Amino acid sequence: MDEISARSKTWLLVALFSIGGLVVVFLLTKDATFRLTNWIGVAVGSPAPDFAYPDLAGNKVSLSDYRNNIVLLNIWATWCRPCVEEMPSMEKLYQKFKHKNFNILAVSIDAQGKAAVAPFMDRYNLSFKALLDTRGGIQQLYHTKGIPESFIIDRKGIIIEKVIGPLDWSSPKVVRFFQKQLQKSSE
To answer: pTM of whole model > 0.85?
Structure first.
Protein backbone atom coordinates (compact mmCIF):
# COMPACT_ATOMS: atom_id res chain seq x y z
CA MET A 1 0.00 0.00 0.00
CA ASP A 2 2.77 2.42 0.90
CA GLU A 3 4.51 1.64 -2.40
CA ILE A 4 1.38 2.56 -4.40
CA SER A 5 0.88 5.61 -2.31
CA ALA A 6 4.46 6.79 -2.89
CA ARG A 7 4.21 6.06 -6.62
CA SER A 8 0.90 7.95 -6.82
CA LYS A 9 2.39 10.91 -5.01
CA THR A 10 5.35 10.95 -7.38
CA TRP A 11 3.10 10.85 -10.46
CA LEU A 12 0.85 13.45 -8.96
CA LEU A 13 3.83 15.78 -8.35
CA VAL A 14 5.17 15.15 -11.87
CA ALA A 15 1.74 15.89 -13.34
CA LEU A 16 1.34 19.06 -11.27
CA PHE A 17 4.81 20.30 -12.21
CA SER A 18 4.13 19.51 -15.87
CA ILE A 19 0.82 21.33 -15.83
CA GLY A 20 2.41 24.23 -13.95
CA GLY A 21 5.22 24.35 -16.50
CA LEU A 22 2.75 24.39 -19.36
CA VAL A 23 0.79 27.19 -17.71
CA VAL A 24 3.98 29.24 -17.25
CA VAL A 25 5.02 28.66 -20.87
CA PHE A 26 1.52 29.61 -22.06
CA LEU A 27 1.50 32.80 -20.01
CA LEU A 28 4.98 33.81 -21.12
CA THR A 29 4.19 33.12 -24.76
CA LYS A 30 0.87 34.92 -24.50
CA ASP A 31 2.58 37.91 -22.85
CA ALA A 32 5.33 38.03 -25.48
CA THR A 33 2.75 37.87 -28.25
CA PHE A 34 0.70 40.56 -26.53
CA ARG A 35 3.67 42.89 -26.30
CA LEU A 36 4.63 42.29 -29.90
CA THR A 37 1.08 42.86 -31.06
CA ASN A 38 0.92 46.07 -29.04
CA TRP A 39 3.72 47.63 -31.04
CA ILE A 40 2.99 46.31 -34.53
CA GLY A 41 1.48 49.06 -36.64
CA VAL A 42 2.56 51.95 -34.44
CA ALA A 43 6.33 51.73 -34.67
CA VAL A 44 8.48 54.29 -36.43
CA GLY A 45 8.65 53.28 -40.09
CA SER A 46 5.21 51.69 -40.21
CA PRO A 47 2.01 53.08 -41.73
CA ALA A 48 -0.03 55.23 -39.34
CA PRO A 49 -3.42 53.64 -38.63
CA ASP A 50 -6.24 55.69 -40.12
CA PHE A 51 -9.06 57.01 -37.93
CA ALA A 52 -12.04 59.35 -38.13
CA TYR A 53 -13.30 61.51 -35.25
CA PRO A 54 -15.50 64.60 -35.13
CA ASP A 55 -13.91 68.02 -34.83
CA LEU A 56 -15.39 70.80 -32.68
CA ALA A 57 -17.82 71.71 -35.48
CA GLY A 58 -19.09 68.11 -35.64
CA ASN A 59 -17.41 67.28 -38.97
CA LYS A 60 -15.78 63.86 -39.31
CA VAL A 61 -12.05 64.24 -39.85
CA SER A 62 -9.77 61.35 -40.75
CA LEU A 63 -6.01 61.07 -40.86
CA SER A 64 -6.23 60.08 -44.53
CA ASP A 65 -7.73 63.54 -45.24
CA TYR A 66 -4.24 64.89 -44.59
CA ARG A 67 -2.28 62.66 -46.95
CA ASN A 68 0.46 64.70 -48.67
CA ASN A 69 0.93 66.71 -45.47
CA ILE A 70 3.29 66.31 -42.54
CA VAL A 71 1.00 65.60 -39.56
CA LEU A 72 1.69 65.92 -35.87
CA LEU A 73 -0.85 63.59 -34.25
CA ASN A 74 -1.13 64.43 -30.55
CA ILE A 75 -3.18 62.31 -28.14
CA TRP A 76 -4.13 64.35 -25.07
CA ALA A 77 -6.76 65.47 -22.54
CA THR A 78 -7.69 68.79 -20.93
CA TRP A 79 -7.15 67.36 -17.43
CA CYS A 80 -3.56 66.25 -18.24
CA ARG A 81 -1.13 68.86 -16.86
CA PRO A 82 1.78 67.92 -19.20
CA CYS A 83 -0.65 68.11 -22.14
CA VAL A 84 -1.74 71.59 -21.06
CA GLU A 85 1.89 72.69 -20.72
CA GLU A 86 2.88 71.58 -24.24
CA MET A 87 -0.13 73.03 -26.09
CA PRO A 88 1.16 76.63 -26.42
CA SER A 89 4.38 75.36 -28.02
CA MET A 90 2.32 73.22 -30.40
CA GLU A 91 0.41 76.36 -31.42
CA LYS A 92 3.72 78.16 -32.13
CA LEU A 93 4.88 75.24 -34.29
CA TYR A 94 1.54 75.21 -36.11
CA GLN A 95 1.70 78.95 -36.80
CA LYS A 96 5.22 78.62 -38.16
CA PHE A 97 4.44 75.82 -40.63
CA LYS A 98 0.67 75.80 -41.26
CA HIS A 99 1.07 77.20 -44.77
CA LYS A 100 3.66 74.58 -45.71
CA ASN A 101 1.55 71.39 -45.83
CA PHE A 102 1.84 70.86 -42.09
CA ASN A 103 -1.08 70.06 -39.81
CA ILE A 104 -1.70 69.17 -36.21
CA LEU A 105 -4.46 66.76 -35.28
CA ALA A 106 -4.91 66.90 -31.51
CA VAL A 107 -7.18 64.00 -30.55
CA SER A 108 -8.70 64.61 -27.12
CA ILE A 109 -9.75 61.63 -25.03
CA ASP A 110 -11.89 63.76 -22.70
CA ALA A 111 -15.09 61.88 -21.86
CA GLN A 112 -17.00 65.20 -21.85
CA GLY A 113 -16.01 65.82 -25.47
CA LYS A 114 -16.76 69.26 -26.89
CA ALA A 115 -17.97 70.59 -23.51
CA ALA A 116 -14.42 70.22 -22.16
CA VAL A 117 -12.34 70.74 -25.30
CA ALA A 118 -13.94 73.84 -26.91
CA PRO A 119 -13.45 76.11 -23.87
CA PHE A 120 -9.91 74.77 -23.47
CA MET A 121 -9.02 75.58 -27.08
CA ASP A 122 -10.49 79.08 -26.68
CA ARG A 123 -8.78 79.72 -23.35
CA TYR A 124 -5.33 78.91 -24.77
CA ASN A 125 -6.01 80.46 -28.22
CA LEU A 126 -5.29 77.20 -30.01
CA SER A 127 -6.13 77.21 -33.71
CA PHE A 128 -5.00 73.76 -34.82
CA LYS A 129 -7.55 70.98 -35.37
CA ALA A 130 -8.94 69.37 -32.19
CA LEU A 131 -10.74 66.06 -32.60
CA LEU A 132 -13.03 64.38 -30.07
CA ASP A 133 -12.61 60.75 -29.01
CA THR A 134 -14.80 60.40 -25.93
CA ARG A 135 -14.21 56.63 -25.70
CA GLY A 136 -10.40 56.59 -25.99
CA GLY A 137 -10.33 54.43 -29.12
CA ILE A 138 -7.30 56.30 -30.45
CA GLN A 139 -5.30 54.99 -27.49
CA GLN A 140 -6.12 51.42 -28.45
CA LEU A 141 -5.49 52.06 -32.13
CA TYR A 142 -2.06 53.59 -31.48
CA HIS A 143 -1.30 51.43 -28.41
CA THR A 144 -0.42 54.37 -26.20
CA LYS A 145 0.66 53.91 -22.61
CA GLY A 146 -0.35 57.35 -21.37
CA ILE A 147 -0.78 60.93 -22.47
CA PRO A 148 0.46 63.01 -24.06
CA GLU A 149 1.83 60.84 -26.83
CA SER A 150 2.57 62.19 -30.28
CA PHE A 151 3.27 60.68 -33.67
CA ILE A 152 4.86 62.55 -36.55
CA ILE A 153 3.54 61.22 -39.83
CA ASP A 154 5.05 61.94 -43.24
CA ARG A 155 3.22 62.78 -46.47
CA LYS A 156 2.88 59.10 -47.37
CA GLY A 157 1.25 58.22 -44.05
CA ILE A 158 4.35 56.65 -42.46
CA ILE A 159 5.21 57.27 -38.81
CA ILE A 160 8.63 58.96 -38.76
CA GLU A 161 8.80 59.80 -35.03
CA LYS A 162 7.05 58.88 -31.82
CA VAL A 163 7.22 61.12 -28.75
CA ILE A 164 6.11 59.84 -25.37
CA GLY A 165 5.40 62.61 -22.88
CA PRO A 166 5.39 66.38 -23.28
CA LEU A 167 7.77 68.28 -25.52
CA ASP A 168 8.58 71.90 -26.22
CA TRP A 169 7.37 71.82 -29.81
CA SER A 170 8.72 75.30 -30.50
CA SER A 171 12.31 74.58 -29.46
CA PRO A 172 14.97 75.28 -32.12
CA LYS A 173 15.82 71.56 -32.38
CA VAL A 174 12.19 70.58 -33.04
CA VAL A 175 11.68 73.45 -35.50
CA ARG A 176 14.80 72.34 -37.42
CA PHE A 177 13.46 68.77 -37.49
CA PHE A 178 10.17 69.91 -39.05
CA GLN A 179 11.94 72.24 -41.48
CA LYS A 180 14.04 69.31 -42.64
CA GLN A 181 10.99 67.03 -42.99
CA LEU A 182 9.01 69.64 -44.91
CA GLN A 183 11.93 70.40 -47.17
CA LYS A 184 12.62 66.70 -47.76
CA SER A 185 9.02 65.97 -48.59
CA SER A 186 8.75 68.86 -51.07
CA GLU A 187 11.72 67.65 -53.12
So the answer is: no
